[in-house]
Design a protein that fits this description.
There is one protein chain. About 35% of the residues lie in helices and about 20% in strands. The protein is of the alpha+beta class. The protein folds into three domains: about 325 residues, 2-enoyl-CoA Hydratase, Chain A, domain 1 (Alpha-Beta Complex), CATH 3.90.226.10; about 90 residues, PDZ domain (Pdz3 Domain); about 100 residues, no CATH class. The strands form five sheets. Strands 1, 2, 14, 15, 18 and 19 form a six-stranded mixed sheet that branches. Strands 4, 5, 6, 7, 8 and 9 form a six-stranded antiparallel sheet that branches. A hairpin with a 2-residue loop joins strand 4 and strand 5. Helix 7 runs parallel beside helix 8 and helix 11 packs across helix 14. It starts with about 25 loop residues before the first strand and ends with a helix.
Length: about 525
């Protein structure tokens, strides 16, 4: 099956993607301590100078230097990486948990900047920007019909806090152009997507990454759920590639009692640094479940490992990614950075969950794909971690090291979707674009509906299911959805709710028949 390349994931201006390769680091110490002289370093510097000064053709010295850095780091491990200035700025912004801009979710639709939804209470919403608007001009810069790269669009819409920008939008519903002045403001990039009730006594919190603001967002959500009287809590770390170690540690501390070990690291000199829980935990006694899958990595695995090894809660899902390396960051003057692995981390029982990387980065990253072929994603008995050492928790439960966190309760992929991987298709940008086009065609169909009325409307019609099937065929995706009708309708309703309401409403619908959640609720 080939997916039309134009169907890339919807670009969320208020949300930036963060990958497993960059997950989990600490701040890098000062650069000066790495300037000690030796012949190898002098040789490399002399070679670069020699090329710059004497090579017969003109070359870009920065390009050669960057490639040299990439090649050096490639000899180390998959998580020691060089980040060029443009990417580093985006990642740093994502991890700060905020940026200064106009506050819109958008994507490029037929060479136009189409507004999916303005950020709630953000500058654009306050100024009058509406879902479905097309931004034609930012001040005097033309944005439509130019196929501008994403970073160029960002640069036009971002700016200093309090600065003003005049945008010209086309409003289809009124068939006219409108000039709107917007004062830029601080826009949060949420790392906690939802904090809601699964039932009257069970709370649910979804964490998409561990950024600077994650613990504060998590604590706010947990406090609200406790006020509603929850007795059990589900933390969803599926597809969470990691982030800041200390944020995962702070969350683990909320569940563990005083002096329990959360995690420890060991560097090349054998120096061990332990992180211990404090007395300040606010949910030390309620039932706890942590959801993981093959894309849960780094800081996600630290949190899951701390809960599992201390017999504090139940891990549900499939074996996690297997990243047990700690990075620190060194920034360069041009805005680029190097993230270097400086230690391994170990769960409280003493297990390293880092999977092997001796065959190179490409094989390392494809290891997760091999789990399809081995049957591991469908059968717990097929889980085979290399050299699987066994460890015992304080209560005598056997846990495994050597490659990811193995869940206490296994939930196979086939219970979540068919073997045609329909669910994976539904999580690509094609669904979001289809929903946007449907709303763009006639947004008034949903005007004035309460959320309960909206859900009833979506459950009672096959209109959008049939239209989506035709949409796939039209775009060369010959996949029949008939065997997964309920799943597809659920994802359609969830995406409509995200674009019409908010992220929390998306999860309220998507979790209704979620296989892992159903396992938890049945406990």
């Amino acid at each position: 099956m080939k997916t039309n390349p134009k169907y890339l994931p919807i670009l969320l201006f208020a949300t930036l993607a963060f990958g497993i390769l960059l997950g989990g680091w600490l701040n890098f110490p000062g650069q000066n301590q790495f300037l000690a002289k030796n012949n190898s370093k002098n040789k490399l510097n002399k070679l670069l100078d020699f090329i710059d000064n004497e090579y017969v053709d003109k070359v870009n010295a920065d390009t050669i230097t960057n490639r040299a850095i990439d090649n050096i780091l490639a000899q180390l491990d998959p998580h020691s990486v060089y980040i060029p200035p443009s990417e580093q700025a985006q990642v740093a912004e994502s991890m700060r948990g905020e940026f200064v801009g106009i506050g819109v979710n958008f994507y490029m639709y037929k060479d136009s900047v189409a507004i999916i939804k303005p950020v709630e209470n953000g500058p654009s919403e306050k100024a009058g920007i509406q879902s479905g608007d097309r931004i034609l001009y930012a001040d005097k810069t033309k944005l439509f019909g130019r196929k501008l790269p994403t970073d160029s669009l960002f640069s036009k819409l971002k700016g200093k806090e309090g600065s003003e920008i005049l945008v010209t939008v086309y409003r289809k519903s009124e068939n006219k152009k409108i000039n709107i002045k917007i004062k830029r403001g601080v826009i949060p990039i949420k790392s906690v997507d939802a904090a809601l009730l699964l039932n009257p006594t069970t709370g649910y919190i979804k964490i998409n990454r561990f950024a600077e603001s994650t613990f504060d967002e998590f604590k706010t959500g947990l406090t609200q759920l406790k006020e509603k009287g929850i007795k059990s809590l589900v933390i969803d770390l599926r597809d969470n590639g990691g982030g800041y170690l200390e944020q995962a540690v702070a969350i683990a501390d909320e569940f563990l009692t005083d002096k329990q070990l959360i995690v420890y690291t060991k560097d090349k000199n054998g120096t061990i640094e332990k992180t211990i829980a404090t007395k300040t935990g606010s949910f030390e006694n309620g039932k706890l479940f942590v959801l993981i899958n093959e894309n849960s990595a780094s800081a996600s695995e630290i949190l899951a490992g701390a809960i599992q090894d201390n017999d504090r809660g139940t891990i549900v899902g499939r074996r996690s990614f297997g990243k047990g390396l700690v990075q620190r960051e060194m920034d360069f003057e041009d805005g680029s950075a190097v993230r270097l692995t400086i230690a391994r981390y170990y769960t409280p029982t003493g297990r390293s969950i880092q999977k092997p990387y001796t065959k190179g980065t490409e094989d390392y990253m494809k290891e997760s794909e091999s789990r399809f072929k081995s049957g591991e994603l469908y059968h717990k008995d097929s889980i085979k971690t290399p050299n699987t050492p066994k460890f015992k928790t304080p209560k005598g439960k056997i846990v495994y090291g050597g490659g990811g966190i193995v869940p206490d309760i296994f939930v196979p992929l086939e219970l979540e979707s068919s073997k045609e991987h329909t669910a994976y298709l539904l999580q690509t940008g094609i669904l979001g674009q289809f929903v946007f086009e449907q709303l763009d065609h006639n947004r008034n169909v949903f005007k004035g509906l309460t959320f309960e009325q909206f859900k009833a409307k979506m459950e009672g019609t096959d209109l959008y299911f049939n239209a989506f099937q035709k949409h796939l065929f039209k775009n060369g995706i010959n996949m029949s959805l008939d065997n997964n009708k309920l799943l597809v309708k659920r994802y359609l309703a969830a995406e409509f709710s995200r674009q019409l309401y908010n992220e929390s409403k998306f999860y309220e619908i998507i979790l209704k028949n979620d296989a892992m959640v159903k396992k938890v609720v049945a406990q």
